[in-house]
């Protein structure tokens, strides 16, 4: 074991209330007090682990410092994707993201560092200090515990509240998610620990006995679940008058064990995220080596000590006494499981590094998943865990098939369901005899001889022998060694065919896909051979017979030329079948896997391993798009299937848009497809109907060699960005594409870079919306180098650029960006001479008609949901800072005051 206490990790002597190691193991975050505000600091972990890096002045120690919280920060927590959540006494939760491609931090409230972390969103709802945070095992849910006696579960992807848990009568000081996703545990000063169900947010268990003698002496009560979900360890508990950490068994919520030894109250508990394993003591030489699997937990206390325990042992692995001068407040394990970090109220942190001989080796993630499946059932794979009345299931299986239903055809789906049913009944009734479904015999194989002498064998499904179907799950069936004497002779009949090429005809030259066809039995269409197939030929090839080499060269030449439709070339490559596919949308997860030559789609709620619904497809899945409202799937046959996310019901029969499909996008309740030929279709899916809201073509926007950089939907309008650094949006009412960004244009790019890097114009504002997303992508493609443009008068260029940004934001309906660019435009006009006329145009539009008949005019007092007079007041504030505009300021300010009186 190696212990390090870096003295450079400090909040200028103020307390550090929380610490957490990043999932990538390269950085860690601390939260606490910082001067007159709350402070979050992100540190480099390399100087902690490596003494040479610590002494190297070129390797930074502090990566970024954020002093944006108005009061002390009590908790910082990373999620698995690298987002940081911070919360504190200002009743706010801030979500931070690393700004990619940005240099030194210059944000308001941030200290200059080598990284820039931007506040993605701020969550407001608690009425008291927030003491603890916990990310759900499946993002993006976040639970927060507060002194207002409540726990709030947030959906951070939409900045909305999922649930508010009310039940505690005291300060809630700790919150922890069950790693299986079924429960949420909270601990409070009201001397209770409550376990909540995540499916309905009802209370599962109320635990009081271990906490009846506890006092409100700790700043936090940070509890923790074991990584296998079997045990929950609380913070401050009492046993015989002494402080303990109570162990609560998931089975029945029993409380018959605890960790004893700390002299003062336990403040925080943290399980290692890994399940560890160690080889047991070896016995005889011929005995098989066995391994012991266990969990490790770290406990911090007000007695300034840290203890580390292994679940199968009765005594701690190690105890570190008086490592701090004050109470231990938070603990964090690294994702590798070999490093532990702790922080204290004395404003310092300690790192401990262990070896595999001391702690053990982390169990492989696949083995962990298999272990959880054995413990909690194979719900994620669609298995059946509980059958309450197996007699009814057996009776259902013995019901004869109605005569109206054909008995011969047996689908793959019915076989899989029947087999699943058989396995479930066998697991409950091992002594019962259950007949396995009989598969139709397959005794035929087709062998086709190609024109070049090669053979093509059509793969056939060969059913497993009956003994494998009847064997118990998990037991292997012994197989006999293969030999000519022990194996019966194969009964499969091989049908040999010769490849037949249809002579080229003018009426089939435009067919763009291979297909099996049926022809009338006339002498003109009859060819030799048992089957008739259509082989694609080059339209420009002659009808004379060619040699095999000529045919191969013609085939290669045809493949190098894009397929054409009505003279229009293929613009974008088509989507190809792929599996597995996984998407996370809101608190839903959609997966597609290949299953017995079928494609199996499953939908889960992210806090549960039990699927909501599933669907099988016979064709390969080429594209998947989902929202909280709908799930859209495109197949290799060109069809698009749309389902409701929560119910699993079809929203409409399969759509057949222009094929093949190059892009599939879903946003809200809308679906967009883009074909390989540039056709764009957008449908709106409601509970009662599906209607087409946009049908256009983007072919004229594409030049040779281009591809799609980004495509999305906003307010039902398609947004397209291409690799030539140009972005467009299709305005449905105007019936045309609008150019909203062009980093290829040196004037546009020069103006954009001058405006965006002008601190006077931009101020502390930042645009967040569809326009910013597309244009930032264009800048990255075009490069951040300023074009060598020598413009003697730059004012008209920047004025035109800012005016364009205002209009684009308005047309797209992005209110946040409209306000941002309008204020930036007004600031630019105020800070430059000779632009009074342009400024008056904005002021007059926002002021409106200042006369008694104003109610009869067509002037709208709102724009995109924002009051125009409120915008006018903001612009007047900007004007008031410049004395040369005092005459214009007084003129419009007096008119605004008079209108307010009316």
Fold and architecture overview:
The model is unreliable at 102-110, 379-442, 461-490, 500-561 and 852-856 (pLDDT under 50). The strands form 15 sheets. A 5-stranded antiparallel β-sheet has the order 2-3-4-5-9. Strands 1-31-30-29 form a 4-stranded antiparallel β-sheet, with no helix packed on it. It has 16 helices and 54 strands. Helices cover 19% and strands 33% of the residues. Among the domains are: 2-281 and 289-367, 7 Propeller (Methylamine Dehydrogenase, Chain H), CATH 2.130.10.10; 569-697, YVTN repeat-like/Quinoprotein amine dehydrogenase (Methylamine Dehydrogenase, Chain H); 833-901. Strand 51 and strand 52 form a beta hairpin. The longest helix has 18 residues, at 795-812. The relative contact order is 0.05. The protein is of the alpha+beta class.
Descriptive tags:
902 residues, Methylamine Dehydrogenase, Chain H, 5-stranded antiparallel sheet, single chain, alpha+beta
What is the CATH domain class of the domain at 2-281 and 289-367?
Mainly Beta
Distance between the first and last residues' Cα: 77 Å
CATH superfamily of the domain at 2-281 and 289-367: YVTN repeat-like/Quinoprotein amine dehydrogenase
Number of helices: 16
The description of the largest β-sheet is: 5 strands, antiparallel
Q: Mean pLDDT, nearest integer?
A: 77
**Beta-strand segment tally:** 54
Low-confidence stretches: 102-110, 379-442, 461-490, 500-561, 852-856
Q: In which order are the strands of the major sheet placed?
A: 2-3-4-5-9
Which CATH-level-2 architecture of the domain at 2-281 and 289-367?
7 Propeller
Query: How much of the sequence is in beta strands?
Result: 25-35%
Helix content: 10-25%
Q: How would you describe the shape?
A: globular
Determine the CATH topology of the domain at 2-281 and 289-367. Answer: Methylamine Dehydrogenase, Chain H
